[in-house]
Amino acid sequence: MSGFTTRAVxxxxxPDRLTGAVIPPIYQTSTFVQDGINVLRDGHExxxxxxxxxxxxxxxxCALEGGLRGFAFASGxxxxxxxxxxxxxxxxxVVLGGDGYGGTNRLxxxxxxxxxxxxxxxxxxxxxxxxxxFVAETKVVWVETPTNPRxxxxxxxxxxxxxxEHGALLVVDNTFASxxxxxxxxxxxxxxxxxxxKYVGGHSDVLGGAVVVADREWAVEPVNGFxxxxxxxxxxxFQQFAGGAVAGPQDSYLAARGLKTLSLRMERHQxxxxxxxxxxxxxxxxxxxxxxxxxxxxxHELAARQMEGFGGMVSFRLRGGESAARRFAESTLMYKLSVxxxxxxxxxxxxxxxxxxxxxxxxxxVPTDLVRLSVGIExxxxxxxxxxxxxxx
Length: 393
Ligand SMILES: *Cc1c(COP(=O)(O)O)cnc(C)c1O
Prior knowledge:
CATH architecture of the largest domain: 3-Layer(aba) Sandwich
CATH topology of the largest domain: Aspartate Aminotransferase, domain 2
Bound molecules: pyridoxal-5'-phosphate
CATH class of the largest domain: Alpha Beta
InterPro entries: Cys/Met-Metab_PyrdxlP-dep_enz, Cys_met_metab_PP, PyrdxlP-dep_Trfase, PyrdxlP-dep_Trfase_major, PyrdxlP-dep_Trfase_small
Radius of gyration: 21 Å
Family: Belongs to the trans-sulfuration enzymes family.
Keywords: Pyridoxal phosphate, Transferase
GO molecular function: cystathionine gamma-lyase activity; cystathionine gamma-synthase activity; pyridoxal phosphate binding
Mean pLDDT: 96
GO biological process, one term: transsulfuration
Order of helices and strands: HHEHEHEHEHEHEEHHHEHEHEEEH
């Protein structure tokens, strides 16, 4: 198999067969002409079922995660919803990483709970706590690593073993690491999900989500018309088509274009992030820096084994508490105050009531003295000058 960046540039991105256009066209079409009733050209009938631009992106991402099939959706949350409805039935239960994306928590606790999907929040960096959270109905263990926003590291090989012992799937939200730094399927995970809105797209100009599945059968009640021996690819593919939250051709094109430069961007993101994390440890205003690249981070050694770098996200806590954290987040200039992450430009957020507003007042609430940086690719001196200014303003 060719190298990562070669696959990022070429997998699913072959020149157009008809015209030779080096960049595959954006097939901005809803439907495809048939050469006779149900005689389809290249298998395309209607863009909810398949569209060459979307399919090209799905193949490209799948080649990078090392999966069997990829499926692209209109947003990260849409892909999570489709995946969970594909593999769960009423009465099932999810072991859910507690330090994670607030929207995933909202989906499971407020959208799926009324359909009798139970869940138990856990600290995914604590294997004993995870072990104790399983019940007979557990069908999915849902993990983000690095976690959001505390940047804890979960042991993917150990979690795979635990999930499989209990007859459950291990689903890994790989948005923070991206496939360049971490490939969960290599550790035995069954499914990878992405908000392609973030590092995959990489330019904060498109929303998207994707599911990549391993080659695996999954027994669910055959209410979809599938026999119990259906594969994850069949189940998710059916849900994508029948539920319909697909990525459009323009969005698929933007995500595919971004993905080609993932390795270059990630190198720069994490080079900047590592230096900024170190610099923050020297600041008297900071009580704790949360970055897995720092040697005293509790997940440092695990991250060094499991990842090929430590990523571009840095969180830190301020001695001055909530008011200092709020003031800091509102004081940077180059770092834009926004939710989201993973774009070339730097973003700052106060997760407590921005990204994690949906868990305020629950045990998953984020400490109010915590600030999260999505470190962009700008020049290091400009990062440090901006952060310095915010400390002293
Ligand atoms: C943003 C994000 C999501 C949700 O994705 P959308 O594209 O916003 O729907 C899911 N997981 C993680 C880790 C995210 O950062």
